[in-house]
Design goal:
Strand content: 25-35%
Helix content: 10-25%
Strand order of the largest sheet: 6-7-3-4-5-8-12-11-10-9
Shape: globular
Mean pLDDT: 85
Number of domains: 1
Order of helices and strands: EEHEEEHEEHEHEEEEH
Structural class: alpha+beta
Length: 228
């Protein structure tokens, strides 16, 4: 299943306030100045750290320790697709930012196929997407599997200017439509989707795996080019 991903729409610093957790509402034990979405550290060896996690190295269990125990884990599958193994938080504080977080587990097709055979039940999500609950043995095994990608959807929107203020100038800008543009930061392993008609999305992978984000975007743009 393709990665899902986005971030916020505001104009000046004063208008960014809804992007933050209200004063006095900071969850206990959460440092508002740490683990922010734009605090990405590269190790200059193809790896990175964000939210205290290393994409491609940190396990699902590590995510649970860092972001909280209330993560839901399931196989998410579109029709006619095998699906991907994902962990999901409906809302989690990332410093002073509130966001939905989805982590994609680096599980092989054979592993996911075997998990589906042992799965307990499947629930339909939006449209015809299915959420397949894992057998308890597979749920335990998934805790030790590495996380390939981290997707963040902040609770409010961001405009392109605000994204650049926080993350810096992108190395590449891919326009998919009048309202949707991807800002690419390969050295950070980051793709920011700015969506004028919907929610913004941030996707993180290890910088060495940046092709996982860029190649599908380039293919989509190339497919649209003849008709533009």
């Amino acid at each position: 299943m393709k990665f899902a991903l986005a971030l916020l729409a505001v104009i000046v610093v004063a208008l960014i306030v809804p992007f933050f957790i209200p004063l006095g509402s900071q969850p206990e034990g959460v440092d508002p100045n740490n683990n922010l979405p734009w605090q990405v550290e590269s190790d200059n060896q193809g790896g990175s750290t964000v939210f205290g996690l290393k994409p491609g190295v940190s396990t699902l269990g590590d995510v649970r320790q860092k972001l909280g125990a209330d993560m839901e884990v399931a196989i998410i599958a579109e029709p006619e697709e095998l699906g991907s193994l994902e962990g999901y938080y409906a809302q989690v504080p990332l410093g002073f930012v509130l966001a939905k977080v989805i982590v994609t587990v680096d599980a092989s097709k054979d592993t996911i196929s075997a998990m589906r055979e042992r799965a307990l039940k499947a629930k339909h999500m939006e449209s015809t997407t299915r959420r397949i609950t894992l057998h308890s043995d597979d749920l335990a095994a998934a805790e030790n599997m590495p996380v390939r990608a981290i997707s963040v959807i902040p609770t409010v929107n961001l405009d392109e200017t605000t994204v650049i203020q926080r993350f810096g100038q992108p190395d590449e800008r891919l326009v998919l439509s009048e309202k949707r543009v991807h800002l690419l930061y390969p050295k950070k392993g980051l793709d920011v989707l700015v969506d004028g008609g919907g929610k913004e999305l941030l996707q993180y992978v290890a910088p060495r795996d940046f092709a996982l984000l860029r190649e599908p975007l380039q293919a989509t743009r190339d497919d649209k080019a003849p008709g533009q």
